[in-house]
Design a protein that fits this description.
The protein is mainly alpha-helical. It contains twelve helices and two strands; from the N terminus they run H-H-H-H-H-H-H-H-E-E-H-H-H-H. The protein has two domains: 68 residues, Orthogonal Bundle (Arc Repressor Mutant, subunit A), CATH 1.10.10; 148 residues, Tetracycline Repressor, domain 2, CATH 1.10.357. The chain is 72% helix and 2% strand. Strand 1 and strand 2 form a beta hairpin.
Amino acid sequence: MNKQTNLKTIPDTATAPSPDAARTDKPSTVRLRAVNDLKRQMILQAARRVFEKDGLLKANVRAIASEAGYTASAIYNHYENKEEIYGDLLQQSLEQLNAAVREHHNDALPAAERITHDAMAFYDFYLKNPRELDLGFYFFQEMKPLGLTPTLNEHLNQRLRDALGGVEAGLRECGCSAALAARETTALFGHCVGLLLLTHTGRIRMFGQDGRELFAMYVDGLISRSLQQTLP
């Protein structure tokens, strides 16, 4: 069993520094903030393992605390509940996704090339990081989302939409109306997730196909359909 450890709560002034805090904080305050951040990361890493094993519905703060080697009360110094922990984990994952999509993105390229780049970068992020895809689905239990506040839920949804924002913008440049571009982006997301699930579960093999190649073919078809919107 992991050794139980109590975490000391860091004052609000340490966790939410002013813009010039880096210049004025005492060394001891900087160290405390660094320790606080490290402990939060340890909690998040432990929570990820618990969520992978039990899912969000069955997981609880006590199990996360045990996995991290802390007491439950220590966890509550940092998070109000398991849903808040999950929200923090998912937010980190979505930031990594957005960074992957933006890497090598070039606004000077033609719209069709930008669509291809962003769509394939989105797919490749989850292809290479299947646990990040799993993380997004822990939120859904019994066919409905659980536990997150409306504000946090909307923020996380927006960051997911941001990752596909370049695709939607490119579709509009290719001739799609705003409404059609939104529908096509939603369909692309659904197609992407479906192929990723088939790939990660190995079900794609029963069809003798490669998920990435199928997705690339779908993206090419999407671009062709979009360009036809500009034809007389």
